[in-house]
Amino acid sequence: MRQRLTSWVKNNGFPIVKFNRISFFSKENWRIFRHNHPRLGGGIIILSGFLVVSLSVFFWNFLPEDPGSTRLQVFEVPYGTSLRQVGERLKSRGLIRSRLAFEIYVRLNPKKRMVKAGRYQLGPGMNLFRVVKELRRGIPSQIRITIPEGLTAQEIADLFSKKGLADRERFLKLLKDPQFIGGLIGEEWKTISEGYLFPDTYDFSLDVTEEEIIAKMAKRFLEVFESEVEAAPPSRKRELLIIASIVEKEAKKADERPIIAGIFYNRLRRGYPLQSCATVQYALGKHKERLYYKDLEVVSPYNTYLYSGLPPGPIANPGLDSIRAAASPAKVDYLYFVAKPDGSHIFSTTYQQHLIAQRKVERERNRQ
Is 348 helix (H, G, I), strand (E, B) or coil? Predict the structure, then answer.
């Protein structure tokens, strides 16, 4: 048998070239090898191409299902769930591209640790490596979220929706439910759906409900708001919250909030419209970097250029500084203010001074 094999090798030319170790894969050696063994050389090329394509397809499955997405959702792995079941649920939820790639990676990864039971925050913007890392290390049963000052109810709903903690539409529907809101914070607040989601840092469990989120934020609002305005009658408290929300959206500098609040009170006493651009933005339902004259004509009770007095409700969820400014405004003679490019304001007593300030600000903007 050994003689036959040796004879076949000699006859088929394997030892024709003595390969140098260093130049084994040189172009010349490869050309000679393909010339003497055309079928075997072609087979290697085809096999190599197949392997490259297969590996490319396999590692394509490691990419995020939705690159760039920041949305998260709560994903639960119950005790006793098999790896295949986890992969199938991840695929069905749009969190990975391939169940098979997920299972192979987990089993072959040198860490040799399977996924852990528990609740996780995962999103389609995560690649497979990140998903597996999260499932292996586990995460706390609670998540900490900071709500910035001045967000509207819709923006807060969007934030919780992106974190995977709330259904946006259900969240907003609850805010418009007078029975639910009245039972939480009192009958005097049940007709408004804005202003009482206090901006703060909160800890929520991953299985929190929309009702629990709103209740926790509303309770915090009552604690803070009542401590600042407890002596005011109920009707006055509503006005204070509306003023605080407008101040929150207009003022960028903390030390200017009491001054801006004082200006709004001065205008209300004189019967002037508030003429707040922030209320027009709220009426438009979207933020614009710059308002035009046609924007000031939007028909809405929140348009304080068209209608005198306060709008029917808050336009945002104010923070503590704005609530304090509304409760204790600065005693000033100003009636006008215009925003500078750096976020501060020029305050004026007369309309003529206000026009001069506007021209000055416009020149500053044009120079930038």
Answer: strand
